[in-house]
Amino acid sequence: MTKRSGRGPWTGTGRRTAAAGAVLLSLASCGLDRIGSDDAPRPTVEAIRITPHNGARGVRPEGRLSVTAPGGRLERVRVTRTDDVGERTVLAGRLSPDGHDWRPTEPRLTLAARYAVDAVAVDERGRRAARHTTFTTYVPRHRFIGYFTPEHGSTVGTGMIVTFGFNRPILDRAAVERGIRVTARPRTEIAPHWFGNRRLDYRPRGYWRPGTRVTLDLRLRDVRSGPDSYGIQHRKVTFTVGRSQVSTVDAARQKMTVRRDGRTVAQLPVTTGAPGHETYNGRMVVMERLAKTRMNGSTVGFGGEYDIADVPHALRLTSSGTFLHGNYWAEPRIFGATKSSHGCIGLRDVRGGSRRTPAGWFYQRSLIGDVVEVVNSRERRVAPDNGLSGWNMPWAAWRAGSALHRPSRSAAGH
Hints:
Elements: E1 49-51, E2 66-68, E3 73-82, E4 88-90, E5 93-95, E6 101-104, E7 114-122, E8 128-136, E9 142-144, E10 146-149, E11 155-156, E12 162-166, H1 173-178, E13 180-185, E14 189-194, E15 199-204, E16 213-219, E17 224-226, E18 229-231, E19 234-241, E20 245-250, E21 255-260, E22 263-271, E23 282-285, E24 288-296, E25 307-316, E26 323-327, E27 345-348, H2 358-364, E28 371-375, H3 395-399, E29 408-409
Parallel strand pairs: 9-18, 11-19, 20-28, 26-27
Antiparallel strand pairs: 1-2, 2-6, 3-4, 3-7, 5-6, 7-8, 10-12, 12-15, 13-16, 14-15, 14-29, 16-19, 17-18, 20-21, 21-22, 22-27, 23-28, 24-25, 25-26
């Protein structure tokens, strides 16, 4: 009687045993050429073990993905992931030194994704086995996304504040902060601040230095923000800081002084808010540039007091409706002399707009992110969350608004 070897399922003597004959793998069905003679034993499907099992559904992100060949050596492992927007990715992985085990380098599985695993193993006699499996991961009930400003590739003013508005309330703010990195070159200190549970802003201690390149690295995909609510974004955004332009509006004198890179380039007559409708004091940032827009008093609480369909050269300064804009309907003599607006800052213009007017001149030389500061108005200081007005908050108070309670250098993220 021939003495049997105790090596396991990959060994044999040329005669099929009852254990090896339980389940056979057809190599032809996998598109592989069979190695060895026709009567050589074939490796069984159990020779390659894949976790999660074939056809598994709702696998949690902390679930383990592994491919093993206990009685042989893995020759090839390919794992592809198709996410919920159809993007296909081939996962990187590590093979153990003995070739028995493969693990992905990513520690967690992606939510709402389909995984396909293809593996080929070979035993010591050169016989190959192949296996193909698929499984799907858990689909959460809610997904959150952060709508951010500024746009990728844009050039902005030195007062730009990076702001995120989330489509769902964020309960775990610390987790979301950890999923966002805001860095700058040259290096500068940057800190986040939460305004409620749907808005997160980032700014440096002082205005950005001209020429700074800022990067937003969003790693929010599958970040848990609350019960059954996970992020969906994974992308990188960059923008560049342009020249410095800070304009100071003196509401007592009805004059605006424009400084470019620290040098005064113009003094322009303006009209600010009339008594009872005074313009906010404080530092505001240009949020939006509109060559022409409609301004309707009913949208900002003034009823039917005005409705102008073609306001030219409009620069939005607050989300509540403060603009610095061209004014063609007022008499030229009021600019520099009379407070006549409902809180906006008006510059002389003509109907349809013209580059040759003070409003046209200023509009053409303005960027989103430029600073406009109002002084000597009888109105209160603009709230830090009204537009991009966070510069009105002291730095210590700004940093205290982080869920992680710590500032950081840009080289290490936020």
